[in-house]
Amino acid sequence: MSLVQIERGSHEARAHDAHTLDPRTASPFPAAAKIDLRDTQLRRNVARATDTIQRKRAALVEEKTDWQALRDAGAAIRREALTNLDRYLLEFEERFQAAGGTVHWAANASEANRIVLGILREHEASEVIKIKSMTTAEIGLNDFLARHDVAAYETDLAELILQLGDDQPSHIVVPALHKNRQQVREIFARTMGLPDLTDDPEALTAAARRYLREKFLRVKTAICGGNFLIAETGGLAIVESEGNGRMCLTLPETLIAIVGIEKVIPRFADLEVLLQTLPRSATGERMNPYNSIWSGVVPGDGPKNMHVVLLDNGRTRVLRDAIGRQTLQCIRCGACQNACPVYRQTGGHAYGSVYAGPIGAILTPQLEDMRYAQSLPYASSLCGACYEVCPVKINIPEVLVHLRARVVDRGRRKLASLFDQERAGMMMMAAVFANRSRYEAAQRLARTAQRAVRHGDAWYHWLPGMAGRWTETRDLAPLPQQTFREWWQQRGQP
Amino acid sequence: MTPGGITSRDRVLERIRKANLRAAGPREAIPRNYDGAGSHRASVQGKDEVVGLFETRLHDYDARVIRVRRDEIAAKAAELLLAGNRRRIVVPDGSPMAWQADGPEWIRDHELSVDVLNGVDGVMTAATVGVAVSGSIALQHGAAEGRRVLTLLPDYQLCVIEVAQVVETLPEAFARLDPARPVTFFSGPSATADIEMARIKGVHGPRFLDVLLVED
């Protein structure tokens, strides 16, 4: 699909659900973004939240004199994990099972969902408490469980806001950042039956604490994701702030973790790097309030049944692409979202994926084998802010450009593309650029044509036909009266 | 199990191997040039500065830090607890008797139920290591640190940590941890910033933390 076709697709946006986060049915980014950009409340909320995190992050990165060394180490650790992924996963599996846990492998989302349901049925569980997990959002676990009569209760404050408000996450770390306190108050007052609730964040948090404490003490099964799997120790690491994670991983009898295969790290001590860069990047804290690390079943302490579901769901496809595979280094800090000038305007929903922002723009289309979310690699100005803040040095602009090429290559295979204007234009450009005399002739021709239609050297604000796509959002400088080569020849010998 | 007896485990591992044969880069060493790593394990700052920084960071989290001598632990602990009107205090099964003075009602953890833990006024534990740079304390849940849930349900924690257990950086702390045991790092009280990025203390974990810093 060419850029032109993507834009054309936007006219059919109404046939899509503007706010689904399923990349297979979501509107193309430009269409969804146009709708969200009209929501001034959303834009204020997103700007406020991303500004705050960015400011805190910047101060803490500034004070860390070894920040670049930590980024280098973190990137190398994550690359090493991917280079030997099969070995580290097997090592994790062996150690985790030796510690009394069970490891399952899921090739895709539906298999992961079925595995989880099977474990729940085995324990006759009709309700579960959940730690925030992007991976369970990716596989649509909550909806799947609801269809099979299992109630899933989100326990992270932001996820609770979204669940009670029948809303979708818009950020990896702060998924309800698009809601302000008045909106949260309205949701809690309505769904918790608290008409006198105020919109003071402290009161709202206290309401959530009371609402959830009963569930923590009652529900015997929990579901979580995982920030890291540790091959060396068969360990699982959960990074969090509120303590809902610790509740879910110590109080229930059964705990099921659904973790992407790429989340493994080789050694326990590798956390000494990633636990420095992740909290600073994610929430602008020197350290987040709670980190839990353990393996399998801890005797006399916590769940007696511990399961890990290792999820592929397209990740091995990403691994096949020499440039795209660095996407899997991601540790889900969300710093790229906060830094992205596009995300900061549109918020997360327009991306039509649980993974929004720059990381979503490269991860989602790859997970979908480039068949869906083809507009996302274009949802960027390639300014590079995402690369600069990435704690594991994923070169997101490089991957974005690479994926744009893959989108075009896919379109090229179709017969219809032979008649595509953009493609014809590109072929002509290629022919012109391939030969010096043709190139110089084209320059002279263009200058002559320019002289016919304009005077002076004002910038173009409007161009006809397909070239108008450029001037829709940017101005174009006119061709200069003389090229560099012409000037060089004219100035003669010094 | 898919038809033909090929499991998803086989299938995923096979895909990984094929992908890596095709696209993996060369092997590389991990550059560990960050503070506290490898031969730089020793603190760059003196011990007094490190402990001072630890104290400052804990204050940033609104924790109280009280420096005590070893023989003052019991008296100071009881004084703090009673001053805060905290009377029913859980201690791990292996908590030193020498830390318990008369006053509070000490409840030893012999598989206490969550309902009991949910109803007490606080918990007193030891610690494994403290990290000055981030004001973090790591528990490895040994005999005097207790089960993980002990330091989760009560709203108040009194943590006893020795000056010798405080290091400057996270890598130094990791060098002291036993990878085979569970670890819980806590850095200040439970908190959230999910509503308009306003930091709110005490969502689900303890809201109040006092630290007894034991000097030799």
Written account of the structure:
The complex is a heterodimer of chains A (494) and B (216). In chain A, 49% of the residues lie in helices and 10% in strands. By secondary structure, chain A is α/β, with parallel strands linked by helices. In chain A, α4 packs across α13 (271-282), α10 (181-192) crosses α11 and α17 (357-367) runs parallel beside α19. The model of chain A is unreliable at 1-16 (pLDDT under 50). In chain A, the strands form 2 sheets. Chain A has a 6-stranded parallel sheet with strand order 1-10-7-4-2-3, with helices on both faces. Chain A has a 4-stranded mixed sheet with strand order 8-5-6-9. Among the domains of chain A are: 3-51 and 316-417, Fumarate Reductase Iron-sulfur Protein, Chain B, domain 2, CATH 1.10.1060; 435-490, no CATH class. Chain A contains 23 helices and 10 strands. Chain A starts with a helix and ends with a helix. In chain B, a hairpin with a 4-residue loop joins β5 (129-131) and β6 (136-139). In chain B, the strands form 3 sheets. A 6-stranded parallel sheet of chain B has the order 1-12-7-4-2-3, with helices on both faces. Chain B has one domain: 3-Layer(aba) Sandwich (Rossmann fold). Chain B is an alpha/beta fold and 216 residues long. Chain B has helices at residues 8-23, 47-60, 73-83, 114-119, 170-176, and strands spanning 64-69, 88-91, 105-108, 122-125, 129-131, 136-139, 156-162, 166-167, 183-186, 191-192, 200-201, 208-215. The radius of gyration of chain B is 22 Å and the shape is globular. Chains A and B meet through α3, α4, α5, α9 and α11 of A and α1, α4, α5, β9 and β10 of B.
